């Protein structure tokens, strides 16, 4: 019978593949089983149109603060991370913008155009973020949660950065923190954009919403030169160079549990050897997501070890923020309509269309919670644009690709259910998106040559771990935040998880880093 030290189910960019590379480099014999034809299928980069690069699902990389790049020597395997001088930008139809830049003084100048008070306030916040960046990332992201011992210090760092006490932060929602911090609606809106994408916590939850705003300030956004898939290629080469083995087009039928211990896997029908059993001497790591991991292990099996965890997995929420993505082929470079206000917006990789007003911001959050897809549409759009930082993404004729993502509740109550994504709804939403773009980019209709879009249902078809099109391992509802995510170390001995955990994917490879640490510790 075939056997390996560690079997990794799912070679995802964030959890499965980096964990496998670390464990293989440490001297363990690791096998990665991937259901799709390529590893990290959500981090694909392709030429949707000839000689232009498009990364539809992982549009931007947050790997800039990740120790994985150095630990696994990814640069020696061809990975080059490039950042913009602008970390995050918002652009508004009235011709203004708001920018958070790498340089706090540059950020302050932009914010001061909206409010002198806000410029001074943001300068202090960003200086304190830079001061605490390493400690925050070590405690919050690159440590295997749940870990209550680190939570209080994480809260202290966030409160210090924002200029409040822990007690004050713990009383505030996300919108309340923005209102107490800034005078200008535009400055408030930029702080709420990543939070409104439901990537850090529930915005209206007291404490959780406020800390979620602070979390977003600790990002370093960028891209991989040559497309974000170069990060996948570098990780794969690092894994293979140390003797790892990958089998693609290989589904897993079940995880074998014997005497309360994960002992291996049985391969599924769509695999090179259906029904074959492969043993794991040290660990089985599932990167297949919460619902799929419960199915693979068996609900009764998990419940016998931890009934409460089995119930949480059975009711794991995945339907709040399915991703709907459109990519446009453009005849030239984007010149945002707000570039006259601050031209640095044209150098940004990550740009948001962030609501029409502050009241509209809060209304959008309510519409998302209320499952009102039509009311939420067109309010918050995340753009990723590679041309300012990666010349390889531009065709010889100067053509470029702009990617836009919106998040919608998957269930589509009142619209016919999930099947509505295959009907007129996608066309209706795309038309609304085009109207929004015409307000943000002068000459938009003449600039666009072609377009392509992916719905949440398309995402789920591509990746079975992304149930309902959920691309960050489960909703950040109030009961699925930080310590309430899945544990890396499951209650069944030798069974581990790296999807549905904290932190979420976002390309920084933290989940895989943490999973590898836990497995290595247990293996001695």
SSE-based structural type: alpha/beta
The major beta sheet can be summarized as: 7 strands, mixed
**Strand composition percent:** 15-25%
Number of helices: 19
Return residue spans where pLDDT drops below 50 for at least 5 consecutive residues: none
C-alpha-based Rg, rounded: 22 Å
Q: Alpha-carbon distance between the termini? A: 25 Å
Number of strands: 16
Helix fraction by DSSP (H/I, runs of at least 4): 25-40%
Shape type: globular
Q: What is the mean predicted local confidence, pLDDT?
A: 94
How is the secondary structure organized here?
Elements: E1 3-9, H1 16-25, E2 30-33, H2 68-71, E3 81-83, E4 86-91, E5 97-101, H3 104-112, H4 116-141, H5 148-162, H6 166-171, H7 174-181, H8 185-196, H9 208-216, E6 222-224, H10 229-241, E7 245-247, E8 252-258, E9 261-267, E10 277-286, H11 290-297, H12 299-305, H13 307-314, E11 322-330, E12 350-354, H14 358-369, H15 373-376, E13 380-385, E14 400-408, H16 424-440, H17 444-447, E15 448-454, H18 456-462, E16 495-497, H19 510-523
Parallel strand pairs: 1-2, 1-10, 2-7, 4-12, 10-16
Antiparallel strand pairs: 3-6, 4-5, 8-9, 9-10, 11-14, 11-15, 12-13, 13-14
Helix pairs in contact: 1-10, 1-19, 3-4, 4-5, 7-8, 7-9, 8-9, 8-14, 12-13
């Amino acid at each position: 019978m075939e056997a390996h030290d560690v079997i990794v189910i799912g070679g995802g960019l964030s959890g499965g593949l980096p964990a496998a590379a670390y464990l293989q480099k440490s001297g363990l014999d690791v096998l990665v089983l991937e259901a799709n034809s390529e590893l990290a299928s959500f981090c694909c980069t392709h030429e949707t149109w000839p000689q232009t690069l498009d990364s539809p699902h992982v549009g931007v990389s947050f790997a800039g603060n990740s120790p994985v790049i150095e630990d696994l020597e990814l640069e020696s395997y061809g990975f080059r991370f490039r950042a913009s001088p602008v970390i995050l930008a918002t652009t508004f139809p009235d011709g203004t913008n708001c920018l958070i830049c790498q340089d706090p003084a540059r950020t302050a100048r932009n914010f001061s155009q909206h409010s002198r008070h806000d410029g001074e306030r943001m300068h202090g916040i960003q200086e304190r973020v830079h001061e605490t960046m390493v400690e925050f990332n070590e405690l919050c992201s690159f440590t295997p949660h749940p870990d209550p011992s680190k939570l209080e210090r994480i809260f202290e760092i966030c409160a210090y950065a924002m200029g409040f006490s822990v007690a004050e932060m713990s009383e505030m929602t996300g919108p309340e923190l923005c209102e107490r911090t800034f005078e200008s609606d535009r400055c408030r809106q930029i702080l709420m954009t990543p939070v409104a994408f439901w990537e850090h916590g529930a915005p209206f939850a007291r404490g959780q919403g406020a800390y979620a705003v602070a979390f977003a300030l600790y990002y370093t956004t960028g891209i991989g030169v040559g497309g974000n898939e170069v990060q996948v290629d570098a990780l794969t080469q690092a894994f293979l160079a140390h003797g790892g083995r990958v089998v693609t087009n290989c589904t897993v039928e079940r995880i074998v549990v014997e005497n309360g211990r994960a002992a291996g896997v049985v391969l599924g029908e769509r695999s090179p050897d259906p029904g074959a059993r492969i043993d794991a001497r040290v660990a089985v790591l599932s990167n297949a997501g919460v619902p799929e991991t419960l199915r693979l292990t068996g609900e009764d099996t998990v419940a016998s070890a931890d009934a409460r965890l089995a119930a949480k997995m059975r009711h794991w929420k995945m339907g709040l923020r399915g991703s709907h993505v459109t990519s446009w082929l453009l005849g030239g470079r984007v010149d945002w309509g707000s570039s006259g206000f601050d031209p640095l917006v044209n150098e940004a990789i990550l740009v948001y269309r962030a609501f029409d007003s502050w009241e509209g911001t809060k209304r959008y959050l309510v519409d998302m919670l209320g499952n009102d897809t039509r009311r939420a549409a067109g309010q918050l759009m995340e753009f990723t644009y590679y041309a300012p930082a990666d010349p390889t993404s531009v065709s010889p004729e100067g053509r470029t690709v702009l990617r836009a993502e919106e998040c919608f509740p998957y269930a589509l109550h009142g619209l016919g259910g999930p099947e509505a994504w295959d009907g007129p709804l996608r066309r209706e939403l795309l038309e609304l998106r085009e109207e929004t773009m015409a307000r943000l980019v002068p000459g938009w209709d003449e600039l666009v040559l072609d377009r392509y879009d992916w719905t949440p249902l398309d995402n789920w078809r591509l990746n079975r771990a992304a149930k309902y099109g959920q691309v960050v391992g489960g909703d950040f509802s109030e009961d699925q935040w930080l310590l309430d995510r899945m544990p890396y170390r499951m209650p069944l001995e030798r069974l581990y998880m790296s999807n549905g955990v904290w932190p979420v994917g976002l390309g920084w490879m933290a989940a895989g880093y943490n999973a590898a640490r836990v497995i290595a510790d247990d293996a001695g």
